Amino acid sequence: MMIPARSSGKHIVRRKQLPAPTSGEQLSLFTVLKRNVGKDLSTVSFPVTFNEPLSLLQHMAEDLEYHSLLSEAAAESDPIKRLTYVAAFVVSGYACTKLRASRKPFNPMLGETFEDIRTNFIAEKVSHHPPIMACHAEGDGWEFWGTSGAKNKFWGKSLEIVPLGTTYLKIGNETYSWQKPSSFMRNLIAGEKYLEHVGHLTIHTTTPHLSCTLEFKAGGFWGARDEVVGQIISPSHPSVQLRGRWHQSFSELLDESGSHLHVLWRASEFPENAPEYYGFTSYAITLNEITSDLDGTLPPTDSRLRPEQRALEEGRVDDAEEGKAQSEALQRQRRKEREDRDEEWTPRWFRRVEGKGELGYEWEYKGEYWDAREKSEWGNIEPLW
After folding, report:
1. If DSSP states are collapsed to H, E and C, what string results for the chain?
2. CA–CA distance from 236 to each of 85, 204, 210, 240 (Å)?
3. Of the candidates 189, 163, 12, 111, which has an alpha carbon nearest to the alpha carbon of residue 378?
4. Using CA atoms, how far apart are residues 201 and 233, in angstroms rounded to an integer?
5. Which of 19, 127, 195, 362 shows its CA 20 to 30 Å from the CA of 261?
6. Is there a contact between 356 and 164 (Cβ–Cβ < 8 Å)?
7. Which residues pair with 153 in a beta bridge?
8. Maximum distance among all Cα pairs of the chain, rounded to whole angstroms
9. 235 vs 108: CA distance, rounded Å
10. Digitized pLDDT (tens) for each residue of the chain, 385 residues in all
11. CA-to-CA distance for 198 and 219, rounded, in angstroms?
């Protein structure tokens, strides 16, 4: 499967740093959560200082930072070796969260979109209640898509984020699928906050009796809090043992002692000043950038055009707070106008398919975005901000 390049052909030099460091005095997250015990946190309006200058749609694109692993998987003819690279890819998607416990991405507006031409990635917020996003990406030999939401549980000293939805990957005739385990924001009351991903993840395949199980281990008093272990099970092959740390590397064990490893993936170094710049990786720094090849080509719904997000990125906190309030007010107004017209919202780039996935439905890509972009035919798109 050869995927046409979306690039304009220009040589693009991407930025190495955000325009301004982390901005604004952050209030106590514990205080806000305590005031909203029992509430759906997706309906709670947080001050803009709780945000980082990316949307949840852009954060979804971070799962594909190490998409080169998918090319390596596609090049493998052996299904077990291919699955080792798929497992490494799944683990690699967590590396970007290592320094991201303090703030949260912006909740996208209904109908908001985000594209990344490096992976032919397109995402759209397709539902507001419950908040659901859908995405699709593709490369040489692989296709990736998924439906994503989350629910939250407040446990007093920690906040549990329970992912909803299923992620899919297709390589050749093989389709893989998985659901993510819970993530916990720890030390809400005192101490340095950190994220911990805990639970089991099974990568299902369409090859009979072939699967991969991963365990994201909870940290103990002595144990590391970022360890991942796993195995690939096949009736025709001895089980393959896997081990690593989700922010650092992931390997196949070549002997029982674990002293000989085949390193499948190793994380890139964080920028030296990452803690002062929202804990972003070098990849995340580029996601809200409007490069010369994108200027004038993006649809008006793209996350990079959201005023309050741009203001926060540039350190203009008061403007960001004002813009956030305005965007939320406009969204409420659009919803009321649709209700007055007895009109249901219809996503532009994805369609709902019943009877599939963890949620009982999935949002599948229609396949029309890149054609519209090439022709600059966005049609009658309702302004979001």
Report:
1. CCCCCCCCCCCCCCCCCCCCCCCCCCCCHHHHHHHCCCCCHHHCCCCHHHEEEEEHHHHHHHHHCCCHHHHHHHHCCCHHHHHHHHHHHHHHCCHHHCCCCCCEEECCCCCCEEEECCCCEEEEEEECCCCEEEEEEEECCEEEEEEEEEEEEECCCCEEEEEECCEEEEECCEEEEECCCEEEEECCCCCCCEEEEEEEEEEEECCCCCEEEEEECCCCCCCCCCEEEEEEEECCEEEEEEEEECCCEEEEECCCCCCCEEEEEECCCCCCCHHHCCCCCHHHHCCCCCCCCCCCCCCCCEHHHCHHHHHHHCCCHHHHHHHHHHHHHHHHHHHHHHHHCCCCCCCCCEEEEECCCCCCEEEEECCCHHHHHHHCCCCCCCCCC
2. 19, 17, 9, 12
3. 111
4. 14
5. 195
6. no
7. 160
8. 67
9. 44
10. 445 446 555 688 999 999 999 987 666 666 666 666 665 666 667 789 999 999 999 999 999 999 999 999 999 999 999 999 999 999 999 999 999 998 999 999 999 999 999 999 999 999 998 999 999 999 999 999 999 999 988 888 888 999 999 999 999 999 999 999 999 999 888 788 899 999 999 999 999 899 999 999 998 766 667 999 999 999 888 899 999 999 999 999 998 877 899 999 999 999 999 999 999 999 999 999 999 999 889 999 999 999 999 999 999 999 999 999 999 999 999 999 999 999 999 999 999 999 888 888 999 999 999 999 999 889 888 889 9
11. 9
Tokens found for residue 278: 């929202």
Residue 70 CB partners (closer than 8 Å, separation 6+): 85, 86, 89, 139, 141, 142, 144, 169, 171
Against a cut of 0.85, is the pTM above it? Answer: yes
In the chain, the domains with their CATH numbers are 29-219+228-341 (2.40.160.120)
